[in-house]
């Protein structure tokens, strides 16, 4: 969907926050004037809260990621998803990125994502230990943990208070399904994270097989979260 249509549809469902991509779905152009996007967000009552940075390549050049982080700051984004094309790239590029963006007051996070250099808990542990810098936090990517046959509780136990953002999906195996019809214990997740004091954002994700029904499933997901997970309207 075009960005304007997407924001309008999400606003009608009840969403007031939006995670930004710099590639893939409705990508934002980090070379553009951020005021263009701020105007679109304001039009639909939408704030931009997190942003996927361009991945750092094998040359370890972080300049594009730094530029995107500055663009994100101008959008009011508080959390940026730091990415690289290899585990070694994550570790070797992190210091330069963290130093270059420290003044922005943003929170960079590592994202576990099945099929990428950070797919398993062992991958995530190795990257965290290799970076060894408390400025780098983590994203709890519940759906991709499930795809890797990892329970979200195992990841919570590993990263502890490093969690600065949470992505949620319900799934059967690797397939995203409507919330409440899958294998992911979302009520348990919310209860656990509340008990740990987590107060950050949750990003609702939907990658169902019947994509034509996505908006209806998103609306149903909001209702499910309100009724079963203690999420306020």
How does this model look, in words?
- Helices cover 42% and strands 17% of the residues.
- It is of the alpha/beta class.
- The two termini are 25 Å apart.
- It has one domain: TIM Barrel.
- A 7-stranded parallel sheet has the order 1-2-3-4-5-6-9.
- The chain has 9 helices and 9 strands.
What number of structural domains do the residues give?
A: 1
Assign the CATH architecture: Alpha-Beta Barrel
Q: Provide the low-confidence segments as ranges.
A: none
Q: What's the end-to-end separation, in Å?
A: 25 Å
- What strand order characterises the main sheet? 1-2-3-4-5-6-9
Q: Major sheet, described briefly?
A: 7 strands, parallel
Briefly characterize the structure:
With 233 residues, this protein is an alpha/beta fold.
């Amino acid at each position: 969907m075009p960005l304007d249509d997407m924001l309008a549809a999400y606003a009608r469902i009840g969403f007031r926050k939006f995670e930004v991509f710099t590639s893939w779905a409705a990508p934002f152009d980090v070379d553009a004037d951020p005021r263009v996007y701020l105007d679109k967000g304001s039009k639909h009552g939408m704030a931009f809260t997190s942003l996927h940075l361009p991945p750092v390549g094998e040359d370890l050049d972080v300049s594009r990621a730094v530029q995107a982080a500055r663009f994100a700051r101008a959008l009011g984004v508080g959390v940026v998803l730091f990415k690289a094309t290899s585990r070694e790239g994550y570790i070797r590029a992190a210091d330069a990125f963290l130093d270059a963006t420290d003044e922005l007051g943003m929170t960079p996070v590592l994202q576990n994502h099945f099929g990428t250099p950070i797919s398993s808990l062992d991958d995530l542990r190795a990257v965290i230990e290799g970076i060894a810098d408390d400025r780098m936090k983590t994203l709890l990517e519940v759906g991709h943990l499930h795809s890797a046959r990892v329970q979200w509780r195992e990841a919570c136990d590993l990263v502890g208070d490093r969690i600065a953002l949470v992505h949620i999906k319900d799934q059967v195996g690797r397939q995203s399904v409507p919330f409440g019809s899958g294998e992911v214990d979302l009520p348990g997740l919310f209860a656990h994270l509340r008990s740990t004091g987590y107060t950050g954002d949750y990003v609702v994700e939907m990658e169902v097989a019947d994509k034509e029904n996505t908006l209806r499933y998103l609306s149903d997901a909001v209702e499910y979260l309100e009724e079963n997970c203690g999420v306020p309207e």
